[in-house]
Design goal:
Blueprint lengths: L16 E10 L1 H14 L3 E6 L6 H15 L3 E7 L8 H9 L3 E5 L7 H4 L2 E2 L2 E5 L3 E5 L20 E6 L2 H16 L18 E9 L5 H12 L3 E5 L3 E2 L2 H12 L3 E7 L6 H8 L2 H6 L3 E5 L8 E4 L2 E5 L3 E2 H6 E9 L1 H16 L1 E4 L1 H5 L3 H21 L8
Parallel strand pairs: 2-3, 3-4, 5-17, 10-12, 11-16, 12-13
Antiparallel strand pairs: 1-8, 1-9, 2-6, 6-7, 7-8, 9-17, 10-14, 13-18, 14-15, 15-17
Helix pairs in contact: 1-2, 2-3, 6-7, 8-13
């Protein structure tokens, strides 16, 4: 089941495929055990593409699982981002090497190559034996798991996948792996059979601004939405095109909601930079909610009965510099599950109304102006490169 050729032979595209099964896994207490069980059951190969991997209890569990799989003859390939794995200790790296796990690092950091260092592999993908996959916004870190009583785990969403679309995830992994690894991925992708509960799915990805498919797909769906556009994202610094699309959708009567981080965030500066857009969005009928209990790291887009879940945030930096990948799903029943999940999150959020927002304290306005200025400066000075490093 090869990908569809595109205008550039170096850029595969993937069609919609029927006969898939998708399952929502909410938070690390659900998706980490499912992922570990899948690795333990692997008989042929394991593929992991991951941005954030930091030594701790979660990483230790996965390293053990990967080494155990390799010991029983399973081929294990890890494609890790060099910047995102700065928190992975030397001893853990040595464990992987001693365990005969194949590891490649995306875009090694080099002094003197400032701009090229910005390109990062932000995808989060696990493929098992070509028949199962997990896609979302997770990292192999303790932040996502309930292992630290003093700190609540990050709110995250992952989709478990079975069916023909898994072969496309396999293709996407091998397409990137061959650029940064010395060995080939074996076996090559095969076409899994359709499974019960047939649902349409498509692999959608970006390669920085050189191939912005996720952005194009999201804008097209927002522009065509007739009932709802609900977006959950951890970092909200939207492009002008996206802001206009959201405003126009709200003007034509579509219910537009944004679920964004509240007081808990790993990058408060990004939150302040994005808040400078609240006034105009609220003025035109976009509803804005900030999640209160903990940091919401989810990346979910719901437009009527279409859903996109994966690694891509709604911020300009991500869309310009990162490799990203989302699972798109067109199915009314799955969309209903996502609708219920987001409704639960909205119930734990604070909604900002325009009169209240206009009366926010002066120091918050100052933070928005300052960090908004930093965002504009970064976009001006570092936003012009469009080639993925090799």
């Amino acid at each position: 089941m090869p990908p569809t050729p595109s205008a550039s032979s170096d850029t595969p595209t993937f069609p919609w495929r029927d006969g898939n099964r998708f399952e929502l896994l909410i938070d690390g207490g659900a998706f980490f055990p499912a992922m570990l069980d899948a690795v333990a059951a692997a008989r042929s190969f394991v593929l992991l593409e991951m941005y954030l991997v930091e030594s701790g209890q979660v990483a230790d569990q996965f390293i053990t699982a990967f080494c155990d799989a390799a010991a029983r003859g399973v081929a294990v390939y890890l494609l890790l981002d060099d910047f995102g794995t700065r928190g992975l200790t030397r001893s853990d790296r040595e464990r992987l090497s001693a365990g005969r796990v194949e590891v490649a690092y995306f875009n090694r950091l080099h002094y003197g190559r400032l701009r090229r260092n910005f390109f990062r592999d932000h995808r989060k993908l696990l493929v098992i034996d070509g028949g199962r996959a997990f896609v979302g916004g997770m990292g192999l870190t303790d932040e996502f798991a309930p292992v630290r009583p003093a700190q609540p785990p990050w709110r995250e969403t992952v989709v478990a996948i079975a069916g023909p679309v898994v072969a496309d995830w396999h293709h996407l992994f091998t397409h990137t792996w061959r650029r940064y690894a010395r060995s080939a991925v074996n076996p090559p992708p095969t076409a899994p059979s359709a499974v019960a509960g047939a649902r349409l799915g498509r692999v959608c990805y970006t390669r920085g601004i050189a191939y912005p498919e996720i952005q194009r797909s999201a804008l097209n769906r927002i522009r065509r939405a007739v009932q709802r556009v609900w977006i959950a994202t951890a970092y909200f610094v939207p492009s002008s095109k996206l802001r206009r699309a959201l405003i126009r959708a709200a003007r034509r009567g579509v219910e537009v909601r944004l679920l964004l981080p509240g007081p808990h965030s790993d990058h408060p500066a990004v939150r302040h930079a994005g808040r400078r857009f609240y006034y105009r969005l609220l003025h035109h009928g976009v509803r804005i909610f900030e999640y209160q209990p903990r940091f919401t790291h989810s990346k979910v887009l719901l437009c009527d009965d279409w859903v996109s879940i994966g690694s891509s945030n709604i911020d300009r930096w991500t869309m310009r510099w990162n490799l990203e990948a989302n699972q798109e799903i067109a199915d009314a029943d799955f969309a209903a599950d996502v609708h219920a999940m987001l409704n639960s999150d909205f119930a734990e959020s604070k909604e900002y109304l325009l009169p209240h927002w206009k009366n926010r304290p002066w120091y918050r306005r100052l933070l928005e102006r300052f960090w908004g200025g930093v965002d504009v400066w970064l976009e001006r000075w570092f936003g012009g490169h469009d080639k993925t490093p090799r």
